[in-house]
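Complex record, two chains
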Amino acid sequence: MLRSPNSVPKTKFWLLIGITFFLHILLLYRFFQLQVLDYDLYKQRANSNRIRANSVPAPRGLILDRNGKIIVDNYPTYVLFGIGDEIVSKSQNFSVISKATGIDTSYLSINYKNNFRSRFLPTKLAKDLTISQLSRLEEYKNDLTGIIYKQYPERIFNPKIRASHVLGYLKELDQEFLSTKTNKTDYQFGDLIGWSGLERNYESILRGRKGVSYFQVDAFGREAGKIEGQKNILPSPGTDIKTTLDLELQELLEKELKDVKGAGIVSNPKTGGLLAYVSSPDYPPDLFTGLISTKDWETVITDIDKPLLNRVTNGLYPPGSIYKMIVAAELLERKLVSESWEVFCPGYYEFYDRTFKCWNENGHGDVNLEKAIVESCDVYFYQAIQKVDIDNLSERSKMFHHGKKTNIDLPSEMKGRVPTYNYMNKKYGKWGWSKGALLNISIGQGELLVTPLQVALYTNILATRGETFPLHLVNKKINKINKIHIRNSTWKLLEKAMRGVIISAKGTGRRADPKIKDLNIFGKTGTAENPHGEPHAWFIGYGLKNDKIISIVLMLENGGHGGEVAAPIARSIFKKYFKNDYKIAIK
Amino acid sequence: MLLNIWKKIKKSPTIILIPVFILLLLGLFSLLSITTLQSQAPPNAFSKQLFFLIPSFIMLFVMSVLSKRLIHKYIYVFYVLVVFAVLLPFFGDKVSGTYRWINFGLPFDIQPSEIAKWIIVLVLARYLSDHNLQMTHFSSNLFPLLIALIPTIIVLNQPDLGTAFVMMSSVLPMLYWIGARPFHLFMIVAPLLSILLAFNVSVFYFWAFFLAIVIFLSKPKLIYGLGLYFGNIFLGLIFPLVWNSLRPYQQNRVLTYINPEIDPLGAGYHIIQSKTALGSGGLFGKGWGQGTQTHLKFLPVQESDFIVSAIGEELGFIFLLLMILLFFFFIYKILRLAINASDRFSGLILIGLASIFMAHIFINSAMASGLMPVKGLPLPFISYGGSFLVSSFMMIGMILNFGRDDGY
């Protein structure tokens, strides 16, 4: 029935109109709510949706030697990252990268797996990309999702020297570190931070301030141009630091200690500045830049010679005979013996039921204090020490900075050990030790332990009668060390004896003298017995020519006799320094 | 003959074309921003849309002058054809995981369900106007429901939940228009609501209360009333239990079956991006071509399902207000034509078409603004989509045709 009448009551029409009206009003209200009432919320959300802030690393300050020569420099490298959340297909992206750069896809996958921390953070895929690789990658930009690259200034080192223990290395910050660091606002995941050595100590100066570059990104994380009106923040580079190191002396000392285990320190007693600093063996300074290969890492970590150990600050050794000047000072200052007091040395000393040997089994005959230092007679000290109180000796040792930190501007340092009455009681029980222990201490053995760096400060004190400055690697305003109250006559005797070590016919340090006109060398050798094999060979000394002065400390682990192996190294350093007539500003 | 056609056009309620063409321009304007400014070379959504305007206008003209008698006479044949048409895609290849489109070797695919949705309206209109049905009997509602359900269930299996919903959307308003008791219609949708609302306990309490009042007020026989009430409550109670006893992957399988475009980034992602785009547009928008969410592709399916968000972001609330006003005016006009129609057949068709448009408008906008779960449905005259555009203009043609009071 096509023409059946359309007799529909008006109420039905109005009801349908009402429903229509209601639905439209509902939509309209919803739009109003989103676009007007909640506008601020969504505006902000939209902004964070499209803006990516990339941090631009600041070039770190350079590390220079005392003459302004560059020891540590920067060079730009490009690092490729992938953002997991934005990568649509890993395998597709990797094969495109591989096609453009020639980097193996399996290498990318392994790096992605190893470096992956969160799907929202850039994960390092490859480093050290060349400009040409990058420009080829740019051509494939539209096939890539979530792939970004950043320029990183990487550390590059002066090829002449290593000095890895002084310079230290940088480390990429991980989540673990960030969660422990209190001032975490400054650092972000993936930033480089000075992790050891000078890089760590002067982090705040070297670091500079990161910049930020803003990009508009599309939903696939691809950069889609700059944001108008949003200026990038340029990074401000770090400040260079000028060290007291001398590139050439450092080079020489490294060469001399190349194939041995040990430590060498050259410093200026008048300023406390370190001219050369070697802990051997060491590691190549660029070992830790960027991605370290597992193989390299294992080589270093499993090396029985412990190249990672900084022997200068963290190696603990018995000082051996170089300690004798402290005993001598104690004897003279408390007037326990006179300078002329003598002992007969038959080559050994019997103490109750024990026999203590002198290093020279033939004996030294009649020995006074000066001769005891010059010829390093042990028997003299075995007898003299019996007049000494252990706590007084400990105080005296501390006067010469044994058993306390030198507070050098490096992040880590050992304190060493100076035994006291309480210490001995604690360790052996009240009746468990006797004066026999003191006999060992008198020749720098036994419970006594020092770091080569402490010995360097000790040497500088001897060289300046206590008028020296704390040891340091970077010049800054510092005060002299605390005044040492020792009579001039005592200093004079010590100096005379140390001079004798070098020039006397029977002096143990004769080989340290390069025999240069007007150059006076003072020194002391040490041969420290230890349970690990051959004795440690020590040489400490300083050279004076007019108003120029340097001090040298050498310690060769299990090296043998100090006079035989350490002293000749000192000679070549003295020779180099004074023959070349180094110009060193003296404060 | 030509004169006759000219007369027909002159007598047509052409005022309906004013909102249609403004909305069409708004859509093209927006598509231009989405495509050209993103340097998409033609053929892109904009150029294709322009191309599809040609068959759209032809069909608009054809449908507006086609003999009503002819339509009335052959509609059952068309109905059978369209049931086969919606079955056809199942013999072809899956496109985007569904059997929605047929490929005739043309550069574009054809979506037969777009036609099916208004064929149903025409069939129902003929069935309901031809027979003098006792609409106050509940049983009179069942056959019309069946007519609509057959193609709908096929479409639901394509699967295309959105279009299936639209196909059903015209049934209840048409039944109501012809005289069905609102209580009966309510009882048709009640089981579905009982199931859906049962997932929220407090809403379900309210629903149970509301249901009781409705049943009480319409005074059915006691046994029917109690049966209806407890039947619904039982459905509501049992369904969440069944659902929760499914393993998550089984639930997912059901959900993906219903909506294959369920996005891999988590269901909320599209809605969040869409709301962000809309909200950040503010009152006046970011300016044409300046929508960052749109142009940086944060906004998904921006040329069809989420085009409202693209407009909202670039042109602001002002333009959405204009859009909603135009749509309201458009629907209002159709309903006016329906009440003023001289015969029942025409009135019913106009009501059905208005329902289809209303369903599209509401579902699309509600979804883009986060009022409803994501279910892709295009916005009439604005969204990109060839079959949909042509189908929309065919419906406009029918509105012109059946809204014209000129007999047969």
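Note: Chain A touches chain B at residues 1-8, 10, 12-13, 16-17, 20-21, 23-24, 26-28, 30-32, 34-36, 38-39, 41-43, 45-47, 49-50, 216-220, 224 (CB under 8 Å).
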